[in-house]
Amino acid sequence: MSPKNFPTLLPDLQIGLHYRLRNIKDLYFHEALSKAVKNMSISSIDSELNSLVSQDALQKLASFSLRGEALFPLPILLKENPFLLGYYRLLYGFSQKEFYNKGPFGAFKAMEEKGKLSKNASNDLEYLCKSLISTAQGFVSQLDDISLSLIAELQLLTVGPQLRGSKNNEYGQIATQKTFSIIKDLLKNYILSSAQTWIEVKNDSGRIVKIKFSSDPDIEIIEQLKSGSRGLISIEIKGGTDLSNVHNRIGEAEKSHQKARHRGYFEFMTIISVDIDYKNLKSESPTTSHFFNLFKIADKNSDEHQKFKDTLASIISVNI
């Protein structure tokens, strides 16, 4: 009997989901809530909980050894970390499309996607929280058991379809957040202050350098001089893992870098999530000074991580 040749099935989708889920947890799961609470006054949180949430609901959570903010969004929390709106949306079981296409909720979408709280959204933040607290109180009243593990399981059930849909946009958002986290970790000994969307460091020349999320480019690094500010690095991040579409993404990066160059930037990084010879990309983005692979710079043992680290240190004038 001749041997049968079964094909090797590639788990590429699950590998991609693993990395995306790991980054989503840092933004929208209990880890993110814990980090925000650590930076805040518990008495201030308790004050808002007692003002906005019914005592019956808080007492029920306390009977399960849970604090109120685990289930109830508060203005003070969402101001500290706007990304946390995603935590509560996932917990209540609403897809992004379902949630942000309903009534006034679309005005708050940038909080979850970019960690940004606009002036208009800030003015209406208490109304948003009151609405979601009403949702949460009905939710809590019908549960006979509540725990952190249950919260995580419910969030995972909601995020599952989201991970499989709208891949390109989500890949881009997560890749940008991942790059930002890598930079923040490399510069941790120089950080003066930080938030979810920016970091301020003092370099070895005594000047302030700010690294922040932007829309065009994805991340920009700016040095503050006595005479004004100077753009150091424009970083474009393309998180898509489809190799066949990489050339279109590089073209988009080139357009963004050209705009940054006209604004005075002099170094340009393009970070991709596919494995390809960078020489093949140079003709499509001649403005790019440095190409990097996101997964390689995330690996602290790789040569590319060391190159990224050295390049960043050289341009910003730090010793890392």
Automatic annotation (TrEMBL):
Q: Which domain of life is it from?
A: Bacteria
Q: Which GO terms describe its biological process?
A: DNA restriction-modification system
Which InterPro entries does the record cross-reference, listed alphabetically? Answer: Restrct_endonuc_II_XcyI
This protein's UniProt keywords: Endonuclease, Hydrolase, Nuclease
One MF term in GO for this entry? DNA binding
Protein's recorded name: XcyI family restriction endonuclease
Q: Which organism is it from?
A: Larkinella punicea
